[in-house]
Description:
The chain is α+β, with helices and mostly antiparallel strands and 325 residues long. It is built from six helices and twelve strands.
Amino acid sequence: xxxWKNVNNCHSVNKNCLKWAQAYFDKHxxxxxxxxNQNKATVTKVTECTGDVDLNQRKGKIITIYDVELKLQWExxxxxxxEVTGSIHIPEMSHDTDSDDFVFSxxxxxxxxxxxxxxxxxxxxxxxxxxKVFEGFSAAMIKENCEDxxxxxxxxxxxxxxxxxxxxxxxxQFSSNITSTPAVVKEEVKKVNTxxxxxxxxFQTSARxxxxxxxxxxxxxxxTRGHVIMKQEIxxxxxxxxxxxxxxxxxxxxxxxxxxxxxxxxxxxxxYSKVTMLFKQGSDCVTLDVEQTGVPIGEEDLTRxxxxxYYWRAIKASFGYGANF
Length: 325
């Protein structure tokens, strides 16, 4: 029986998310306010949100594609008590626009030179808050809409992708030292000289949420932006980033501990490291202590960069668990 999300058995599934985007901006932009030099301004309404907002699954990859024009109303009060109103025009908020390149055109109704002072308040206090909303847009769209487009690859009748590519629209490719992968031939595992890596990462969330983010397949595919194999079961195998990362779950204690074997595809054949993650819940955050034993000598820097960029930074960006670093 055909899956209702993919009735033609195509390898691409699409959802128009414009209405969701309109609601998202109403919720997160309206009410933004700031004060500078006793001049206060507040966003009061999103008057226009037009353009294209699409969420796609393409051969196991979740991709966001959007190009939106926004118009906002604001009202404020000058230091002397004068009331001021105006608008903000953002001509383009798109998936391939860097945060520094957003354009904010600020207008004042019945403007005068005296009222121009409030523009500085908007630029210095409101604009940075709006940029944060825009930066979280892609991750929020995936998190709240992915169930409508994501289909397990084996249910689509196609093999898992051999690689996950990096696109401006948001798919992720894990770094590796190899350019292609030949057929695997069973061979004797050679002795590898190894070292141990340790790190502590702070997340602005709970231990429960972080544990689920690292072990729940649906949540993992959000921050990896691609097909994953993952089960919350001891002795289950996992694969991330198109098979560039793989291993086996050895121990699971919800909200406390994860132990797994872990390897990069480029490592010597058959060699796995061992990763132990310990969760330490604080009053307003959780600290994750990570120890990785058995990392091949010479692979330390690449391994650290992959954990930092493709795990921790991606998780924080996707779920808002703290500022990206």
